[in-house]
C-alpha cells in the first residue's frame, strides 16, 4: 500500500454512517441498482458529510485519473488468466492505462487487502477475474468494475462472459453432423458451473444420441483414461466422446489408442479449451472449443474504458460466442 | 502512460548532453560500473544542469517513492513467468509495493514504450524477466533493476539466476547412482542456452556413460517420440534418457511404453522443469529438475527491495541451486 499520511474516507465509512451495506452504498452513489429513494438520499448525505469523493467514476473529472487499473484474479496467473490478460492489456494500452496485478489465491483476506490497497492507490477501475465460470460475489466498491469470465452474482454489475453452453452445443452438433449417433459425455466435477452448464447443453443437443448420462469426474487426463475403461466395458458401441476439457480428451484419446480403438476411425473425440500443449500434443490433435479468452479480455478492457471515460453506457452483461477448432480427432 | 503536463528530463537527455551512452550515464549517476572519473564527473554535471533527479534510487528520499515496481517480461505471462511472479509478489508485498505488469512479447519497440511509460510513472524499481535463460541486453536506466532468470549481459547489473547446469548434473548423477551406464541425452535447440548449458553438464558428469552425443531438437513431446524411434534403432542397449524438458521426457516415456519398453524397469527417464501438467500426467510420473522459480522470484523481489531501500548491498549475481524431484520414472 502507498504512503498515505491522511487517509481518505472510504465507502465503508459512508456505508457505516448510513447504516447500509457497502454494496448498497456503492449503488446509491453510482445511481445504479434498485434502491428505495430515501436509502439513496441517506447514503448521499452520509457521503457528503464525510467529504467522500465517489470513486474514480471519471465522469467530468479526467484530470484526477491515475491511468491505472487493478486486475484481481483468483487464478494465480494460471492458464485462464494469461490469455485474458493479454486481451486486457491490448485494450487498455489504447487508453494509456497500466495494469496492477493482484493474485488473491482464493483467499478472502488477501482479496480484501488488495482491494483496499488499490483504492488507496486511486486506481481508475478494476477488472475481476478467476479460474472458473462460477458466478462470484460483487465487490461492491464505488469504482468502475468489470467482471470477466467469472460473472458477478449482482445483475447490476458489469460482467463479460463466454457462452460456454453454446460451445458445448457446437461440439455435440459437429459430432452428429459427422455421423456419430452413440455419444457419451465425460467431464469435470458436477459442482463446477463449467461442468454442469456444458453437460446440460450436450444433453439438449444430443437427446437420444447421448447413450448414457454425463459422467462427472475430474479435470484430468487420468479421469479421461478411467472413463474409457469404464465405458468400453459398459457401452462398447459408443462412437464418440464429447469431453469437458482438453485434458480429459487427451486421456480419452490416449487410452482408446492403447486399447486398439482407432480415433477418429471408430470413435470421434472432442475437447474443450483449445489449450495448445494438450490439444496439439494429442494424437490425433484435438477438435476443441476455443473460448476466445483474449477476445474476452479485450472486451473487458474496452468496457472498463467506457465506464471510466463515461462516454458510453455498456450493457450490464455481455456474452461472447466461442468457436469450434476442428482437427484430426473428429474427422 | 500517465498524464504528464511537464515532462521531466530523462536519462537519455543527460546521456546526450554528456556525449555518452544511456548505459554509461546510468552507471555514472549510480556510482556503479568501471568508468573513468572524468566521464563520471561530466555525466553528473550534465544531470545537474538539466535538473535531472537520479531515479528512484531511494537512498534518503523514501518520501518520493511510489511503492510501485514494473515487471517486464518477454514470456507473454507464460509458464516461466507465472511461478516467478508469485515469488516476486510475495517478496514485494512485504515492502508494500504493487506490481505493474508489462508484456513486451519479444518486441523491442514494445519494450522501449513500456520502459518510458514506467519511468514516467516514477516506479521505484524494475524486474526484467523472460522465457529463456539466455543473457539479454542491459536496459541501462537509472532505476534500481533486477534481472531474473534471463541475466543481463552487463556484469555490473544485478541478476538472479538458476544454476541449470547443476540441475542437469543432478539428474545425470541420479541415473548413475541408480545403476544406469548406457545413457542418452535428448534436448532442445542447441542455440538455446538452456539446451547447450545442460548438455555440457550432462557430458561432464557422464563421460563414457553417455553413449552418443547429445541429441538437439525441439522442446516438444513429438521430438521426444521421434528421438526414441531413432535411438531404439541405433542404440537399442540404451538404459536411460536424460531429457532437457518435461515435454520431451513425456514424449520419450509415451513412446517407450508404446514400443513395449518398460519404464523404469528397462529404461529410466528424467525430465526438467517439474511442470505439473506434464510431469504428473506422465506414466509413470516423471523424476525431474525443479528450478525453484517461485524462490527465484522471491530473491528477485527482496534484492530489488534492498536496492530501493538502499539498506543493503546485494551481490551483482546470485545463483540459486535447483532440486531434483524423484518420482516413478527413474526408480
Distance between the termini of chain A: 55 Å
The helix tally of chain A amounts to: 11
Which architecture of the largest domain in chain A does the CATH hierarchy give at level 2? 3-Layer(aba) Sandwich
Assign the structural class of chain A, choosing from mainly alpha, mainly beta, alpha/beta, alpha+beta, or little secondary structure. alpha/beta
Q: Helices and strands of chain A, in N-to-C order?
A: HHHEHEHEEEHEHEHEHEHEHEE
The oligomerization state is homodimer
Total strands of chain A: the figure is: 12
Kindly report the CATH topology of the largest domain in chain A. Rossmann fold
- State the fourth-level CATH superfamily of the largest domain in chain A: Response regulator
Largest interface: A-B, 35 and 35 residues
Shape type of chain A: elongated
The CATH C-level class name of the largest domain in chain A: Alpha Beta
Radius of gyration of chain A: 23 Å
Indicate the low-confidence ranges of chain A by residue numbers.
Answer: 1-7, 55-62
Spatial arrangement of strands, main beta sheet of chain A: 2-1-3-4-5-11
Helix content of chain A: 40-55%
Keywords (chains A, B): DNA-binding, Transcription, Transcription regulation
InterPro entries (chains A, B): HTH_LacI, LacI/GalR-like_sensor, Lambda_DNA-bd_dom_sf, Peripla_BP_I
Region (Disordered) (chains A, B): 310-331
Domain HTH lacI-type (chains A, B): 9-63
Secondary structure elements and pairings:
The structure is a homodimer of 331-residue chains.
Chain A: H1 11-18, H2 22-30, H3 37-50, E1 68-73, H4 81-94, E2 98-103, H5 108-120, E3 125-129, E4 145-148, E5 158-162, H6 164-178, E6 183-187, H7 193-206, E7 215-216, H8 221-234, E8 240-243, H9 246-258, E9 268-270, H10 276-279, E10 288-290, H11 293-309, E11 317-320, E12 323-325
Parallel strand pairs in A: 1-2, 1-3, 3-4, 4-5, 5-11, 6-7, 6-8, 8-9
Antiparallel strand pairs in A: 10-12
Helix pairs in contact in A: 1-2, 1-3, 2-3, 4-11, 6-7, 8-9
InterPro entries (chains A, B): HTH_LacI, LacI/GalR-like_sensor, Lambda_DNA-bd_dom_sf, Peripla_BP_I
Biased composition (Basic and acidic residues) (chains A, B): 313-331
Region (Disordered) (chains A, B): 310-331
Amino acid at each position: 500500500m502507498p504512503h498515505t499520511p491522511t487517509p481518505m474516507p472510504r465507502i465503508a465509512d459512508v456505508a457505516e454512517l448510513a447504516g447500509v451495506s457497502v454494496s448498497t452504498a456503492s449503488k446509491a452513489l453510482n445511481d445504479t441498482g434498485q434502491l428505495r429513494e430515501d436509502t439513496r438520499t441517506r447514503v448521499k448525505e452520509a457521503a457528503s458529510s464525510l467529504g467522500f469523493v465517489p470513486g474514480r467514476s471519471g465522469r467530468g473529472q479526467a484530470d484526477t485519473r491515475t491511468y491505472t487499473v487493478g486486475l484481481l484474479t483468483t487464478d494465480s496467473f494460471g492458464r485462464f488468466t494469461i490469455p485474458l490478460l493479454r486481451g486486457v492489456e491490448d485494450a487498455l494500452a489504447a487508453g494509456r492505462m497500466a495494469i496492477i496485478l493482484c493474485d488473491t489465491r482464493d483467499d478472502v483476506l488477501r482479496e480484501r487487502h488488495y482491494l483496499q490497497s488499490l483504492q488507496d492507490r486511486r486506481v481508475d477501475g478494476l477488472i475481476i477475474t478467476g479460474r472458473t465460470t462460477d458466478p462470484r460475489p460483487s465487490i461492491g466498491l464505488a469504482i468502475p468494475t468489470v467482471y470477466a469470465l467469472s460473472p458477478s452474482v449482482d445483475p447490476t454489475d458489469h460482467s463479460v462472459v463466454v457462452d460456454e453452453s453454446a460451445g458445448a452445443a457446437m461440439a455435440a452438433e459437429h459430432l452428429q453432423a459427422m455421423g456419430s449417433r452413440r455419444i457419451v459425455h465425460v467431464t469435470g466435477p458436477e459442482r463446477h458451473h463449467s461442468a454442469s452448464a456444458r453437460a446440460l447443453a450436450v444433453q439438449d443437443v444430443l437427446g437420444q444420441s447421448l447413450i448414457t448420462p454425463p459422467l462427472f469426474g475430474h479435470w484430468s487426463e487420468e479421469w479421461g483414461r478411467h472413463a474409457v475403461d469404464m465405458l468400453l466395458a459398459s457401452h462398447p458401441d459408443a462412437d464418440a466422446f464429447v469431453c469437458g476439457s482438453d485434458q480429459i480428451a487427451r486421456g480419452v484419446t490416449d487410452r482408446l489408442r492403447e486399447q486398439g480403438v482407432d480415433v477418429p476411425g471408430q470413435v470421434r473425440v472432442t475437447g474443450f479449451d483449445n489449450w495448445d500443449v494438450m490439444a496439439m500434443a494429442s494424437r490425433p490433435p484435438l477438435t476443441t472449443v476455443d473460448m476466445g479468452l483474449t477476445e474476452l479480455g479485450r472486451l473487458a478492457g474496452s468496457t472498463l474504458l467506457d465506464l471510466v471515460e463515461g462516454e458510453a453506457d455498456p450493457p450490464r452483461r455481455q456474452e461472447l460466442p466461442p468457436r469450434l477448432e476442428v482437427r484430426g480427432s473428429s474427422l
